[in-house]
């Protein structure tokens, strides 16, 4: 059972891992906590945004849509590798996913196929949206991939988790394809290497 970090602790943890952080407005208090609990937390979930343009992407992830209010994540990782903190607490990013996947993340075992959506992921995962069209062709700059690795490792390091606590949205919720353009196994290997340091 891992309680979420405080907002200030989250900020400090990211910066200690060498992440370039931009704080967006009242991010520390911008959340969906009135819709349900935040925590215990068990992992880090990575997404892509299907958007172009950093400023637009950050604003959208902060504010959300009429039918899906923001924040849509905790941090937005733009192409230049900056992590824009847009919310903290419960965020509309993971949605419903597979309880067997959650059990595997908690146990830090290999992930089973996600074949049902019966468990509230917004309660249990830190979420990072990454600026990318998600078409398999939009590039992932090295600066952005480095930031994704660093944020995942930072959260895992704080909680004492291994790289197996880092998953993609596509591994959680049936029908999702994000993040598209790199393998989650490759990202977990990078996180594992960073956690050795």
From TrEMBL:
<dbReference type="InterPro" id="IPR036505">
    <property type="entry name" value="Amidase/PGRP_sf"/>
</dbReference>
<dbReference type="Pfam" id="PF01510">
    <property type="entry name" value="Amidase_2"/>
</dbReference>
<protein>
    <submittedName>
        <fullName>N-acetylmuramoyl-L-alanine amidase</fullName>
    </submittedName>
</protein>
<feature type="domain" description="N-acetylmuramoyl-L-alanine amidase">
    <location>
        <begin position="27"/>
        <end position="180"/>
    </location>
</feature>
<dbReference type="InterPro" id="IPR002502">
    <property type="entry name" value="Amidase_domain"/>
</dbReference>
